[in-house]
Amino acid sequence: MTTPQYKTPQELLAAMSKESENFLNSFAFEQGQEMMTEFSKAWQSIFSQTFDQPQKWTEFFQNYQQQQMNLWMTFLNPQNATQTSGETKATKVTDRRFSGKAWEENPVFNYLKQSYLLASDVLVKAAEAANLDEENQKRLNFYTRYFVDAMSPTNFVSTNPEVMQLAIETKGQSLLDGLKNMLGDMEKGRISMTDESAFKVGENIAVTAGSVVFQNELIQLIQYKPTTEKVNSQPVIVVPPCINKFYIMDLQPSNSLVKFIVDQGYTVFLISWINPDESLANTQWDDYIERGSITAFEKVLEITGSPKLNAVSWCVGGTILATTLAILHARNQGDMVASATYLTTMLDFSDPGDIGVFLSETAVAQREAHLKITKVLSGRDLATAFNMLRANDLIWSYVVNNYLKGQSPQPFDILYWNSDSTNMPAAMYIFYLKNMYLENNLVKPNKLTICGEKIDLGNIKTPSYFLSTIEDHIAPWKSTFLGTEKVSGNIEFVLGASGHIAGVINPANKNRRNYWVGGELGKGADHWLQTAESKAGSWWKHWAEWAAKQGGEIIDARHTLGNDFYKEIEAAPGSYVKRRIDRVV
Questions:
Q1: Are the C-beta atoms of 178 and 403 separated by less than 8 Å?
Q2: CB atoms inside a 10 Å sphere around CB 25
Q3: Helices marked H in 331-396 — which ranges?
Q4: Which residue from 548, 500, 519, 480 is spatially nearest to 339, judged by alpha carbons?
Q5: pLDDT value at position 134?
Q6: Which of 49, 86, 116, 555 shows its CA 20 to 30 Å from the CA of 105?
Q7: Parallel/antiparallel/unpaired status of strands 219-224 and 376-377
Q8: pLDDT digit string (tens) for 211-263?
Q9: What pLDDT is stored for residue 389 in this prediction?
Q10: How many CB atoms lie within 10 A of CB 317?
């Protein structure tokens, strides 16, 4: 992309300001209109409380005014001014956004930082002090925090001394580079979090050797080549989430969970979901089960000749797996699955965590009306929502580095995957929102009928391995723990360190972090953790030891993929995963 030429610094700054405004009005604030609406709506309740409890709120904001006066006096006469305890607490917070020396050494910018932190602290505390019901209180807290983070002086050229100093040192080149980065991202409709030119699916990412051996309109079934001379007679099938590309589980050889499982001596298959367009708008949750997971299970058994398989799932893939197992048990076919692994999977959605702020009945109804027009949920919109949950790390840090400082993001495979979003069919997505998040119907025995069968998770007797992560903000570990109380059979629960992605993709060869095992089940999540034992390193090896106990004989590996009926269609990772649909109008 060619960046326009500017004759004066003033023209360049004006262009940056204009394009920044366009940026905020487009994809960075793709849900910004909703954010401002929800922020205003939530704060109306606080304003109404000022009439009911005028003294409380008058004292609250008088205290704020006093602290602001102290800041102002400090700015005017820093040697003689004193700090109040309130000011110290509000303005001495360690914050990576203000780590540059100029925020401390320059009195103007130091005052700007302190004033912003104080105002942020007051707004957040005012929100937390509101007397609302639990759902609206969470929404108020979230939108208040999102608003104050968005308004940080670090996010704007004229109020960020590091940006201004860099512009002077580079004679404006940093701003030109930033403008070029911004215009490029506006064309793509998303923020660049990594050097996307550094990766190509099937060449240096998602490279575990294998072939597509079956496909229909929803899935490609990949079979991977064995790397050992002997394998377990029970194959493994991986059920990844359908809201993301599968290769988060097959990044590079050094951090590929798929390759790790293959190397443990298993014949491994994987479901690669289609990235749907409008033609699949009416595809139902039932279709993802019947034509997706159940079909894939049947093909795996036909190809290998094994009577049983082991299933490994992640996130929404685990919700699909549990639904599948409930149906198979209702059909007296549950024995085909020897074991089930659920990685950061929610079965009970009674407490969905931070994502719940987007999932009120009103919000879902609005989304449903919108999907009648678009036919599919844009993967970009879904990614934006998840990024909003960690806005400083996943939105504003890139705004500052990419656009204000003109820097290019570094190559990072996980962030490349994070930017490679997947759409969801309207019908399937609305069913998922209503029956899981809004009504929590999956855990209500016989409440749902899927693929013609009443769903009762309690009938699932398959040995199960649950892996949760202690810092997970998408599938909170105490919520995923509830899954252990919904299914029957032998259960192993493991709690890993870190979050939803890094806690799962924790390669055994690096032996990093830790995990907890051996807690007492049946008495709640807190009791389990109190009675659990911490182990150093990755949970991958622990899973491998557990999986080896789930049956099967050791047989010669078969290096020919597929069979006489199911021929190799194309090399892994297949074509479905390479399908990118960035924009849904």
A1: yes
A2: 12
A3: 361-374, 379-388, 391
A4: 548
A5: 82
A6: 86
A7: unpaired
A8: 999 999 999 999 999 999 999 999 999 999 999 999 999 999 999 999 999 99
A9: 87
A10: 28
Measured CA to CA, the distance from residue 149 to residue 393 in angstroms comes to 11
**Exposed / middle / buried, residue 124 (Cβ in 10 Å: 0-12, 13-18, 19+):** middle
% the chain with pLDDT above 70: 83
* Lowest-confidence pick of 137-146, 327-336, 444-453: 137-146
CA distance 126 to 57: 9
| 244 or 33, which is more confident | 244
Q: Say how far apart CA 315 and CA 473 lie, in whole Å.
A: 12
Nearest to 390 by CA among 343, 346, 354: 354
CA–CA separation, 549 and 310 (whole Å): 11
Distance CA 523, CA 525 (A): 7
Q: pLDDT tens for residues 126-149?
A: 888 777 778 888 888 888 888 889
Per-residue confidence at 360, pLDDT binned at 50, 70, 90? Answer: confident
* pLDDT computed for residue 141 by the predictor: 87
**How many of the other CB atoms lie within 10 Å of CB of 125?**
14
The average pLDDT across 345-357 equals 93
Q: What would the two tokens of residue 349 be?
A: 């959605």
Q: How far apart are CA 120 and CA 118, in angstroms?
A: 5
Side chain identity, residue 275: N
Residues 6+ apart with CB under 8 A from 111: 71, 72, 74, 75
Please give the pLDDT value at position 21: 59
The dihedral region occupied by 520, where left means phi > 0, alpha psi between -120 and 50, and beta the remainder, is beta
Helix, strand, or coil (residue 492):
strand
The residue count for the chain: 585
**Active-site residue flag, 315:** yes
Among residues 41, 58, 38, 62, the alpha carbon closest in space to that of 50 is found at 58
Angle at 332 between CA 328 and CA 335, to 5 degrees: 75
CA distance 354 to 25: 24
Average pLDDT in the chain: 87
CATH class of 210-364+421-578: alpha beta
**In contact, 506 and 478? CB cutoff 8 Å:** no
Is residue 511 very low, low, confident or very high in pLDDT (cuts 50, 70, 90)? Answer: confident
Q: Are 193 and 415 in contact (CB under 8 A)?
A: yes
Count CB neighbours of 278 within 10 A.
Answer: 14
Domain boundaries, the chain: 210-364+421-578
Rg, C-alpha atoms of the chain: 26
Prior bond of 161 cis (ω within 30°): no
State in Å, rounded, how far the first CA of the chain is from the last one: 23
Q: How many CB atoms lie within 10 A of CB 286?
A: 19
Is residue 88 pLDDT above 70, yes or no? no
What average pLDDT does this structure show over 142-164?
Answer: 90
